[in-house]
Amino acid sequence: MFEVLSWSYRFIYTALTAGFALSCWMAYSKNIRTCRYISPLLNLILIILNFSLIAYYYEPLDYTALYIGVGLASAYMLSRLVLAKLSIGCNCLMYDIVYNMLQTGLIILYRLSPEYGLRQACFAAAGMLGFFAAFIFMKRFQIEYKHLSLLGGLILALLLITQIWGIEINGSKNWINLYFTNVQPSEFIKLIFVFFLACLLSQELSTRRFVGIAASILAVICFFVLQRDIGSAFLFFAVYLVMLFTKDIKGYYTAISAGAAIGGAFISYFAFSYIRSRVLAWINPWKYTSGKSYQITQSLFAVATGGLIGTGLFLGDPKFIPAVHTDFIFSALCEETGILNGISLLAMYALISIIGMDISSKCSNPIYSSAAFGLTSLTAIQTLVIICGVLNIIPITGITLPFVSYGGSSLLSQFINVGILCCINTMAEKTD
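Above: the chain sequence. Below: its structure as tokens.
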């Protein structure tokens, strides 16, 4: 009975997610007021239907899944009302998109393991609190150029703490054990780093200043390489490069940085065996299907198996993919809900990136404008890198899919990121 229900639900789920994506795009691009009400309604319907289906799968009925669904829907309605009172502009639309991504991730995680789903729901609660805390903090405390030393000191302190007291998980020494949970400081360093760069780039870009900026990014990347956290190293450099490009009128400094990156990547390939292993697995994954390429080949099989509308929840085999709940959750999503739903999710990432760039362009404060661009780039690049990784377009980097993959530090930092963007947007709207 469940198999028939899940198989049939694929069509409803695909229609609802496509409708949500379309309504969000119409609400933003055409400013259609009706669509602004359709998006949250579809979100609520998706939450209720998805968690009801999950609860029905288990015998006896899984009340925990129902409680999570009810809690998620209630928290969404309450937090959205609070945000509507606190802010103006397109913040509620951004929040709708983020919440859609969140509930998508929770569904897949709970399907993979109820423990993952329950823990992620707790992380989501912390993330929502982090969202509003960041929003209120940014309204009351203005970051200026004089805070540059403080921001740099915070980055250095967190890097040193991780290097000295960090523990190794999945081959990377980039975690801190707090007894009750493990925290990944790099997730929070990247937010501070964006504001650090924004402060530096708010001044005239001279050769001396460029050398200082380049030295800063080199130091950060060296720490990540020592911690075997190649994903963070790549992400930080990519964000630095796009932020530098916006201020580098002639493009000389950007070209020098890109050239240095290519040289560094070439050296790293020969200097570090784990980097060489990932590159070889990427170049010819079918040669090492039982070894270093097992993860990526299983990911490709999963995406191909799902087809356009997926196998149906609980009717696929995503658990064959190692680290499916973190690095390869997009593959699990495509296998059980289909490539069309994967495309809808990518459309949401594209829209939130466009909204973020729009916020950056209309903000008159140079530091906040640059920070908004950097924070948006952070999410966009991270999404692009992980999607390309699971599809074997580029080597696997080990970073997470924003708002969807499992992880408390990642989810909390992403909510803080959007909270800051919403606050910058509110301040920019009031200035206009």
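The chain has a mean pLDDT of 90.
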